[in-house]
Design goal:
Layout: H1 13-35, E1 44-50, H2 51-57, E2 71-75, H3 84-89, E3 99-108, H4 114-121, H5 127-136, E4 141-150, E5 155-161, E6 175-178, H6 184-192
Antiparallel strand pairs: 1-2, 1-3, 3-4, 4-5, 5-6
Helix pairs in contact: 4-5
Length: 196
């Protein structure tokens, strides 16, 4: 065990671990907020703003915010019904926003389903046919993905797999998975919205 008075410098990665943990906590908070409204929701975007800055401008929010959290998610207006990638490409956050998060419902398929999808899409690789095939695949799992990024490059993802009851009497139980690289392409698209 290190002696805190030994003058030794803390490991350089400690700050990164703290930033990652903080962003993961915010991603879970976004997931819980969106989950409270149930399933079958459109994509929802959140600005991640420093809690201290928000409280300085609006002190009346102190009783509604986690004042110990460095970042607070602020829900934004609904995204257009168009392609998500196109919508994100048009977003540029002001410098007061330290990060952003997106909650988006997706379909997760097992690795063996790839050949089924290629067959369903046909030679043209029609994206619309591919989406229909994934949505109707017998082994699909519906999920909600929350992807979050910050200006310092920290990333976090939370995926909630929609629970299914084993029988009519059982209550569906969602499974939650966390990993910073669950959706690298989406994380890259979100990070691009923070670039100057």
């Amino acid at each position: 065990m290190d002696n805190p008075d030994s003058g030794a410098e803390p490991a350089a990665h400690d700050g990164t671990n703290i930033a990652t943990a903080n962003l993961a906590t915010v991603a879970r908070e976004v997931d819980e907020f969106v989950a409270a409204a149930g399933w079958d929701q459109p994509p929802q975007l959140f600005a991640l703003v420093p809690t201290a800055d928000l409280l300085a401008k609006q002190p009346e929010l102190a009783d509604r915010l986690d004042v110990d959290s460095p970042l607070t998610p602020v829900a934004q207006e609904s995204l257009p019904e168009s392609d998500l990638g196109d919508s994100l490409a048009k977003i540029a956050w002001p410098e007061t926003v330290e990060g952003c998060a997106l909650a988006h419902e997706i379909v997760v398929l097992p690795p063996g389903a790839e050949s089924d999808l290629e067959e369903a899409a046909g030679e043209s690789g029609d994206a619309e046919r591919l989406q229909r095939a994934a949505a109707n695949h017998p082994e699909r799992t519906e999920a909600r993905l929350v992807a979050a990024v910050s200006r310092d490059g920290t990333r976090a993802c939370v995926m909630r797999l929609r629970g299914t009851g084993d029988n009519a009497e059982s209550e569906p139980v969602d499974e939650v998975i966390e990993h910073p690289d669950l959706a690298p392409n989406l994380l890259d698209a979100l990070a691009a919205t923070l670039e100057p």
